[in-house]
């Protein structure tokens, strides 16, 4: 298939629809964003290097990973060899055949879709963050666009808050990726460095005092940037921990950067549990943000630093409002999925749910992203029917048993949470719970805040913990 006249080519939108339909029929998924980017670039006659430069990825990744896998996928989907050089001819012919055949072509493609359970292609695990190039990430407008705009501002601070397993880290990695895409190769100063720190990975001894925490903090950032991290050589008892940390960032990290540093700190909640150091740590972050905001009257180095703070719960420790980083910058609170977003996710799993099916599922899990992913994963794998899923969801025989058991074990470790949760799940109305305990239950994702009161996050938790209220503390 060669010798295609340029004037005979169809629009990219037309051939993309054809390619996506074929892939969906055979591989039971849509084309991923990165695959669409490569497809479009090749369609426009660009080289792998040009595509990589425009989308902010390493050329090797496009050349040796995405590209070859994409041609294999298209070859399997169309039933004939598709390569980078034959792409235009193949897709043009297939698109025209599809248009001429009308519904018949669609029927032919769909007929190739596997129907037996053992032949259905496996989909990615519903546990953990949604991978960067996954087709299963559903945006919650305007959250992503606001974050992407904010992260481009010098000295920016973004705060992402939501209970456990709501998608905070998945959003965080996309904010970092968006920042990396803004790198302008012909401008040294516009280089973007990104560092992600997860405070859960720090040893408990790190939180024993402020000095220990800030030395770990400095050393971890330096290591991620592949810089020498002999922090002790730059630490002095005379000036104090916060001053030492600030000077280390200025002299050893920011001054040498020929661009911006986007620093994302995940699981910030770890510091909340140590009020003796929390006030100083958060005051320090606030001071850096303000230093950047001062512009010419302050130290311009701090405009190079952009912070992304990620946490699971409300700030329940007393912080001076004028020194806290939790009342400045862009605040993002991730909600559950709306019915239309849940339907979008179901379709990405190639599921055809009726309106009544979706209502029943949303009533059970209230749009909780992780619980929805679990449900759609098992339905797509044909492990069970929706009727079976709903009937067994709140039992030890259901698909959520591991998830529910983890919560049960946590409650057994923190018995002070048992009594308030029991009252919450047994009440038909939101009730008041002592603030610290309410925030703790909220961070676990078990309750949602309604003003100064709380109620179960979803009917699944109400059913499960109502049935086990008397045995939680056994």
Write structural notes for this entry.
The chain is α/β, with parallel strands linked by helices and 474 residues long. It folds into three domains: 6-119, no CATH class; 143-333, Rossmann fold (3-Layer(aba) Sandwich), CATH 3.40.50; 402-467, no CATH class. Helix content is 49%, strand content 8%. The protein contains 20 helices and seven strands. It has helices at residues 12-27, 33-43, 48-55, 59-78, 87-101, 103-111, 143-150, 168-181, 210-224, 241-254, 269-272, 275-293, 339-348, 355-365, 369-380, 386-392, 401-413, 418-426, 435-444, 459-467, and strands at 157-161, 191-198, 259-266, 305-311, 330-333, 447-450, 453-456. The strands form two sheets. A five-stranded parallel sheet has the order 2-3-4-1-5, sandwiched between helices. A two-stranded antiparallel ribbon has the order 6-7. Helix 1 (12-27) packs across helix 5 (87-101) and helix 1 runs parallel beside helix 6 (103-111). The longest helix has 20 residues, at 59-78. 36% of the residues are buried. It holds the Pfam family AAA_35. This is vWA-MoxR associated protein N-terminal HTH domain-containing protein. Residues 11-93 form the vWA-MoxR associated protein N-terminal HTH domain. InterPro entries: HTH_VMAP-M9, P-loop_NTPase. It comes from Petrachloros mirabilis ULC683.
């Amino acid at each position: 298939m060669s010798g295609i006249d340029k004037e005979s080519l169809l629009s990219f939108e037309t051939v993309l629809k054809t390619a996506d339909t074929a892939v969906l029929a055979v591989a039971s998924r849509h084309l991923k964003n990165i695959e669409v980017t490569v497809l479009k670039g090749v369609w426009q006659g660009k080289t792998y290097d040009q595509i990589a430069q425009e989308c902010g990825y390493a050329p090797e990744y496009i050349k040796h990973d995405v590209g070859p896998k994409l041609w294999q996928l298209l070859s399997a989907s169309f039933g004939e060899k598709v390569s980078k050089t034959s792409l235009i001819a193949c897709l043009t012919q297939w698109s025209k055949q599809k248009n001429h055949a009308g519904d018949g072509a669609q029927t032919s493609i769909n007929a190739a879709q596997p129907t037996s359970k053992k032949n259905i292609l496996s989909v990615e695990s519903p546990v953990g963050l949604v991978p960067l190039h996954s087709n299963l990430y559903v945006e919650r407008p305007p959250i992503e666009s606001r974050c992407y705009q904010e992260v481009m501002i010098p000295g920016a601070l973004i705060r992402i808050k939501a209970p456990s397993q709501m998608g905070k880290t998945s959003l965080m990695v996309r904010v970092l990726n968006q920042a990396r895409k803004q790198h302008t190769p012909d401008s040294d100063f516009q280089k973007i460095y990104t560092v992600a720190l997860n405070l859960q990975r720090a040893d408990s001894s790190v939180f024993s005092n402020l000095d220990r925490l800030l030395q770990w903090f400095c050393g971890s950032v330096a290591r991620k940037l592949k810089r020498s991290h002999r922090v002790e050589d730059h630490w002095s008892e005379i000036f104090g921990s916060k001053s030492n940390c600030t000077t280390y960032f200025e002299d050893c990290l920011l001054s040498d950067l020929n661009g911006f540093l986007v620093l994302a700190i995940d699981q910030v909640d770890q510091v909340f549990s140590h009020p003796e150091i929390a006030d100083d740590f958060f005051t320090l972050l606030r001071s850096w943000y303000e230093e950047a905001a001062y512009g010419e009257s302050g130290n311009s180095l701090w405009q190079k630093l952009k912070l992304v703070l990620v946490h699971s719960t409300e700030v329940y420790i007393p912080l001076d409002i004028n020194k806290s980083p939790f009342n400045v910058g862009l605040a993002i609170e991730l909600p559950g999925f709306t019915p239309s977003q849940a339907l979008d996710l179901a379709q990405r799993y190639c599921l055809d749910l009726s309106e009544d099916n979706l209502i029943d599922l949303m009533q059970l899990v209230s749009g909780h992203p992780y619980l929805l992913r679990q449900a759609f994963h098992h339905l797509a794998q044909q492990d069970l029917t929706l009727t079976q899923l709903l009937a067994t969801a709140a039992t030890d025989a259901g698909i959520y048993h591991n998830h529910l058991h983890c919560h049960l074990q946590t409650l057994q470790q923190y018995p002070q949470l048992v009594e308030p949760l029991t009252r919450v799940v047994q009440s038909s109305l939101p009730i008041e719970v002592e603030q610290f305990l309410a925030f703790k239950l909220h961070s676990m994702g078990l309750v949602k805040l309604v003003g100064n009161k709380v109620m179960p996050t979803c009917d699944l938790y109400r059913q499960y913990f109502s049935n086990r209220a008397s045995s939680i503390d056994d």
